[in-house]
Amino acid sequence: MRRDRGFTIIEILVAMVLISIVLMASVHLTIAMLRIVGKTGSPEERPARLRSVATAWAQAELEFIQQIGFYTACPSALPSCSFWSPRDCTGYPAAFPDPYAGDGPRPPEAFYAAHIVVDYDPTGPPDDLRLVKVELYHSSAECKSGTPFLEASTSLGDPQ
Protein backbone atom coordinates (compact mmCIF):
# COMPACT_ATOMS: atom_id res chain seq x y z
CA MET A 1 0.00 0.00 0.00
CA ARG A 2 1.42 3.33 -1.08
CA ARG A 3 1.05 6.33 1.15
CA ASP A 4 0.86 9.80 -0.47
CA ARG A 5 3.06 12.17 1.32
CA GLY A 6 3.46 15.95 1.16
CA PHE A 7 6.67 17.92 0.94
CA THR A 8 9.32 17.24 3.50
CA ILE A 9 10.51 20.00 5.77
CA ILE A 10 13.87 20.05 3.94
CA GLU A 11 12.16 20.58 0.58
CA ILE A 12 10.13 23.45 2.02
CA LEU A 13 13.24 25.08 3.55
CA VAL A 14 15.18 24.77 0.26
CA ALA A 15 12.26 26.31 -1.65
CA MET A 16 12.05 29.19 0.84
CA VAL A 17 15.78 29.87 0.58
CA LEU A 18 15.61 29.92 -3.23
CA ILE A 19 12.61 32.26 -3.23
CA SER A 20 14.38 34.57 -0.74
CA ILE A 21 17.49 34.74 -2.94
CA VAL A 22 15.41 35.60 -6.02
CA LEU A 23 13.46 38.27 -4.12
CA MET A 24 16.60 39.88 -2.72
CA ALA A 25 18.21 39.96 -6.17
CA SER A 26 15.13 41.57 -7.73
CA VAL A 27 14.91 44.21 -4.97
CA HIS A 28 18.61 45.03 -5.44
CA LEU A 29 18.11 45.33 -9.22
CA THR A 30 15.04 47.55 -8.77
CA ILE A 31 16.90 49.92 -6.43
CA ALA A 32 19.84 50.12 -8.85
CA MET A 33 17.51 50.96 -11.75
CA LEU A 34 15.73 53.65 -9.72
CA ARG A 35 19.10 55.26 -8.97
CA ILE A 36 19.99 55.30 -12.65
CA VAL A 37 16.74 56.96 -13.74
CA GLY A 38 16.90 59.45 -10.88
CA LYS A 39 14.14 58.48 -8.49
CA THR A 40 16.52 57.89 -5.58
CA GLY A 41 20.15 58.50 -4.74
CA SER A 42 22.45 61.48 -5.03
CA PRO A 43 22.93 63.51 -8.24
CA GLU A 44 26.15 61.62 -8.98
CA GLU A 45 24.17 58.37 -9.02
CA ARG A 46 21.56 59.54 -11.49
CA PRO A 47 23.24 60.44 -14.78
CA ALA A 48 20.20 59.67 -16.91
CA ARG A 49 18.05 62.05 -14.88
CA LEU A 50 20.67 64.80 -15.02
CA ARG A 51 21.01 64.41 -18.79
CA SER A 52 17.24 64.56 -19.18
CA VAL A 53 16.89 67.70 -17.03
CA ALA A 54 19.80 69.41 -18.82
CA THR A 55 18.40 68.59 -22.26
CA ALA A 56 14.93 69.87 -21.35
CA TRP A 57 16.37 73.15 -20.07
CA ALA A 58 18.58 73.65 -23.14
CA GLN A 59 15.64 73.05 -25.46
CA ALA A 60 13.43 75.43 -23.47
CA GLU A 61 16.13 78.14 -23.46
CA LEU A 62 16.73 77.86 -27.21
CA GLU A 63 13.00 78.00 -27.92
CA PHE A 64 12.64 81.02 -25.64
CA ILE A 65 15.39 82.92 -27.48
CA GLN A 66 13.74 82.02 -30.78
CA GLN A 67 10.48 83.48 -29.48
CA ILE A 68 11.94 86.77 -28.25
CA GLY A 69 14.37 87.07 -31.18
CA PHE A 70 18.09 87.62 -30.99
CA TYR A 71 17.74 91.41 -31.34
CA THR A 72 15.90 91.39 -28.02
CA ALA A 73 18.44 89.03 -26.43
CA CYS A 74 21.40 91.24 -27.35
CA PRO A 75 21.45 95.01 -27.23
CA SER A 76 21.35 96.34 -30.81
CA ALA A 77 24.78 97.93 -30.53
CA LEU A 78 26.45 94.59 -29.87
CA PRO A 79 27.12 92.09 -32.66
CA SER A 80 27.25 89.32 -30.08
CA CYS A 81 26.59 88.82 -26.41
CA SER A 82 27.19 86.29 -23.67
CA PHE A 83 25.32 85.69 -20.40
CA TRP A 84 26.05 83.56 -17.34
CA SER A 85 23.46 82.34 -14.87
CA PRO A 86 23.42 82.16 -11.86
CA ARG A 87 27.23 82.57 -11.66
CA ASP A 88 30.21 82.58 -13.93
CA CYS A 89 33.08 80.08 -13.82
CA THR A 90 34.87 81.99 -11.08
CA GLY A 91 31.94 81.30 -8.78
CA TYR A 92 30.79 84.90 -8.49
CA PRO A 93 27.28 86.00 -9.43
CA ALA A 94 27.14 86.82 -13.13
CA ALA A 95 28.56 90.29 -13.83
CA PHE A 96 26.15 90.78 -16.74
CA PRO A 97 23.07 88.82 -15.78
CA ASP A 98 20.78 87.46 -18.43
CA PRO A 99 18.55 90.49 -19.24
CA TYR A 100 15.52 88.34 -20.01
CA ALA A 101 16.02 85.82 -17.20
CA GLY A 102 12.85 86.94 -15.47
CA ASP A 103 10.85 85.63 -18.43
CA GLY A 104 13.04 82.77 -19.59
CA PRO A 105 13.55 79.31 -18.12
CA ARG A 106 15.74 79.19 -15.04
CA PRO A 107 18.79 76.90 -15.16
CA PRO A 108 18.26 73.66 -13.21
CA GLU A 109 19.32 73.88 -9.56
CA ALA A 110 21.48 70.75 -9.82
CA PHE A 111 23.88 72.61 -12.14
CA TYR A 112 26.67 75.01 -11.25
CA ALA A 113 26.37 77.47 -14.14
CA ALA A 114 24.68 78.10 -17.46
CA HIS A 115 26.27 80.05 -20.31
CA ILE A 116 24.25 81.54 -23.17
CA VAL A 117 26.03 82.94 -26.24
CA VAL A 118 24.40 84.77 -29.14
CA ASP A 119 26.79 85.42 -32.04
CA TYR A 120 26.93 85.52 -35.83
CA ASP A 121 26.71 82.08 -37.40
CA PRO A 122 29.94 81.53 -39.38
CA THR A 123 28.27 78.85 -41.51
CA GLY A 124 25.51 81.10 -42.85
CA PRO A 125 25.27 84.14 -45.11
CA PRO A 126 26.95 87.25 -43.65
CA ASP A 127 24.81 89.17 -41.16
CA ASP A 128 21.75 86.97 -41.81
CA LEU A 129 22.07 84.23 -39.22
CA ARG A 130 22.78 84.25 -35.53
CA LEU A 131 24.11 81.24 -33.68
CA VAL A 132 22.62 80.72 -30.24
CA LYS A 133 24.56 78.34 -28.02
CA VAL A 134 23.73 77.22 -24.50
CA GLU A 135 26.14 75.40 -22.23
CA LEU A 136 25.33 73.81 -18.90
CA TYR A 137 28.05 73.04 -16.35
CA HIS A 138 27.41 70.50 -13.59
CA SER A 139 30.38 71.48 -11.43
CA SER A 140 32.90 74.28 -11.01
CA ALA A 141 35.64 71.94 -12.29
CA GLU A 142 33.72 71.42 -15.55
CA CYS A 143 33.19 75.17 -15.81
CA LYS A 144 36.84 76.06 -15.24
CA SER A 145 38.03 73.43 -17.73
CA GLY A 146 35.57 74.70 -20.35
CA THR A 147 34.00 71.28 -20.77
CA PRO A 148 30.23 71.63 -20.42
CA PHE A 149 28.02 68.81 -19.20
CA LEU A 150 25.68 69.66 -22.09
CA GLU A 151 26.01 71.97 -25.08
CA ALA A 152 23.24 72.77 -27.57
CA SER A 153 22.88 75.33 -30.32
CA THR A 154 20.59 76.60 -33.04
CA SER A 155 20.63 79.25 -35.74
CA LEU A 156 18.16 82.09 -36.02
CA GLY A 157 17.37 84.02 -39.14
CA ASP A 158 17.13 87.80 -39.41
CA PRO A 159 13.49 88.74 -38.68
CA GLN A 160 13.46 91.59 -41.27
Q: In a few lines, what is going on in this structure?
A:
The chain has 160 residues and is an alpha+beta fold.
Write a concise keyword list for the protein shown above.
4 strands; 38% helix; alpha+beta; elongated; 4 helices; 160 residues; four-stranded antiparallel beta sheet
Radius of gyration: 27 Å
How many domains, in number, for the residues? 2
The largest sheet has its strands arranged as 1-2-3-4
Instruction: Give helix % range.
Output: 25-40%
Number of helices: 4
Q: Explain this structure to me?
A:
- It contains four helices and four strands; from the N terminus they run H-H-H-E-E-E-H-E.
- It has 160 residues and is of the alpha+beta class.
- It has two domains: 1-41; 47-157, no CATH class.
- The radius of gyration is 27 Å and the shape is elongated.
- The N and C termini lie far apart (101 Å).
- The model has no long low-confidence stretch (mean pLDDT 78).
Task: Show the helix and strand layout.
Blueprint: H1 9-37, H2 47-68, H3 70-73, E1 81-85, E2 113-120, E3 129-137, H4 140-145, E4 150-157
Antiparallel strand pairs: 1-2, 2-3, 3-4
